[in-house]
Amino acid sequence: MSIKTEEPRIYKAMNQAEDQLEAFELDPKLLLMIYIRASQLNGCGYCINMHTKDARKAGETEQRLYALSAWWETPFFTEEEQVILKLTEEITQLTRTGVSNEVYSKAVTLLGKQKLAQILFAIITINAWNRIAVVTHMVAEQD
């Protein structure tokens, strides 16, 4: 099923969320890392394919893209990126342990409350897109 075809208002609402994310003026490469990591965890091949291409176009390195699934084992990510990736994982896998006080406190300290709110919205938005794509069996396009 194509939700876009059957109920275009859903896509309109999701696109409005995307528009708001762009208005926050967050680093596009950071947003794409959030999108890719959540999509990896959710098993969303459609979104992984799309966002890795976008990340390369935005100037993200191949090395960081390859290492993203094991980011904590590499020196390639800043402290801010690490806390954002950990937060992405905890929110995406919310039923496992929730969001730990440690990660939340560190995120507030490093990001401030406004940027943290923006990052939370980005994580929530990509998780919604992942669920749309996975549930409706959207297929990644080959180049």
Element layout with pairings:
Layout: H1 3-6, H2 8-23, H3 28-42, H4 45-57, H5 62-67, H6 79-92, H7 94-97, H8 101-111, H9 113-135
Explained architecture:
- The protein has 143 residues and is an all-alpha fold.
- It has one domain: AhpD-like (Up-down Bundle), CATH 1.20.1290.
- The chain is built from nine helices and no strands.
- Helix 2 runs antiparallel to helix 9, helix 3 crosses helix 9 and helix 8 crosses helix 9.
Rg, rounded, reads 15 Å
| Average pLDDT, all residues | 96
Helix content: over 70%
**Rough outline:** globular
According to CATH, what is the class? Answer: Mainly Alpha
The CATH topology, please?
Answer: AhpD-like
Counting helices, strands and paired strands, the structural category is: mainly alpha
Q: Any idea what the CATH architecture is? A: Up-down Bundle
Characteristics of this structure?
mainly alpha
Summarize the structure.
With 143 residues, the chain is mainly α.
